[in-house]
Design a protein that fits this description.
The chain is mostly helical. The protein contains 15 helices and no strands. The longest helix is centred in the first third of the chain and has 30 residues. The model has no long low-confidence stretch (mean pLDDT about 90).
Length: about 350
Amino acid sequence: MLYNLLYPLADEYQFFNLFKYLTFRSGGAVITSLILSFIIGPRLIRWLRMKQKGGQPIRDDGPESHIRTKQGTPTMGGLMILLSVTLSTLLWADITNEYVWIVLFVTIGYGLIGFTDDFMKVTKRNTKGLRGKLKLVGQFAIALLAGFWIQKVAPETIDTHLALPFFKDWLPSMGVLYLPFVMLVMVGASNAVNLTDGLDGLAIVPIMIASGCFALISYLVGNAVFAEYLQIHAVPGAGELAVFCAALIGAGLGFLWYNAPPAMVFMGDTGSLAFGGSLGAISVITKHELVLAIIGGLFVLEAVSVIVQVASFKLTGKRVFKMAPIHHHFEKLGWQEPTVVIRFWIIATILALIGLSTLKLR
């Protein structure tokens, strides 16, 4: 919004020329969303504690320490991030850019699904919440609409094509399989992040790491000069998504202030579904869907651990892990919660660096 209002005045007032630069506006988005988080956070936590007398219901079959240490902690803290990111993005991004609205549509849509799930959990006092099938129907419907929208906005040369890491000239068209693929990416990313959100601070830092990576990727693919130099496929207009990613980093830092062990508030599905979905949408727009699987490899690992556990138990009656998702397995092995969280952050950082290396290794 500031770009649309102030940059046209640059001819008269040279200072406003700053709003032309994505780097300046991304920096402004980080600071703004961080400040908003600190303003919203205390008030939101007090309100959630008042409304959620018993806090988020804790799984009876979970690690014993959770029943003792996490009982009574409110959930839906993702609202803090959601509000901060949305307001900051609208303030600093070019609001005529359709890619910005697509990502906001997915983020807010998935956030509403997550909010409904969290609300049902705290009001019914159980861990089930919204029925899984209904949740998936809503996620796939939003992803389908977003996929159509992306296909409409993207240049014809790349609209239904898949970019492959390490290959600079191969861009195969997926044809009718494009929309199902887009839906799978967004829904898969959303639920993978949701499964990761099980320990204090565990999900939000990898979300920020992935956001930082995609801020860079968005900036590069949106710049024709850098895209040609790196031999990656240019996506005109995608650079504006760097502002959204920057806002997510700032809001994530603000949320981590309250979510650091021992957490004062949990993100809940409100946040994890929303920002997993947004990362999926950004990866589709920037044509880096497969790179998301590397950068967000920790989320993939968590999701795969659940799939393996369920499949093994149904087929053989035996469990591969002591408990799934896999972060609970290590807790059952005797690792302390901060140990699991910090080591998983390290893994997320390593995978992010590997993912970023694909920009040049072609």
